[in-house]
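As a next step, we paired sequence with structure tokens, yielding the entry below.
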Amino acid sequence: MLRVSEIFYSLQGEGQDIGRPVVFLRLAGCNLRCVTCDTTYAWEDGEEIPVRVIRDRLKAFPCRYLTVTGGEPLLQAQEVAKLLDLLPAWVLALETNATLWEPEVLGRFSLVTASPKLPSAGVGPFPHSVFSRYVKTLYPKLQVKLVVGDREDWEAVEELLKEYPPLGRKIPLVIQPLDRGGPLSQYHEEVRKLAEVFLQRAGRWKRDNVRFLPQLHKILWGRERGR
């Protein structure tokens, strides 16, 4: 059984696969409570569904690319592994906050997006002890996404670039502008402002594998669930 928040088919709105048709399996439950979270409905509740029923629901979509997200999917790592066993022909991607280390499950995915939280998330110190394992072990299949909202976040990004030289080089780095939850017009304006900051700072970083990407699904459909 997996505790599921929602299952839907849409465009990938974030990261290096942006714009790609994807089936999303959003699992319920999270070990963080980020003040900036845009999927707080996935923290709790959810529906307990047998993995074979989930497999059948996934197969009903016209796509064989699955992104497992949350919440925090690795809280249910053993059951996730059982589901993956039932999807041998699928391309599999995972989105995680990089606070948990489950190497046997992580190794099953062709793409792992690690999104450790910066100061604006309000969840305490950066998880270096776990994140360093991602960088050292998963780099052929790893991308890192950092959600940036203010000066303290930008400074945290620059510290991470110093501490983890592969970021923005061997490991793709995505800078994603924070959605503060106000009117969408405000989000669009904030994206423009943060893009200018990114251009100034990225010129100093001199790393050729860094991208600034807003959330495509919000630009297209706002904050509608299942999109």
In short: Residues 64 and 104 are 22 Å apart (CA to CA). Helices lie at 51-59, 77-85, 103-106, 128-137, 151-163, 184-205, 216-221.
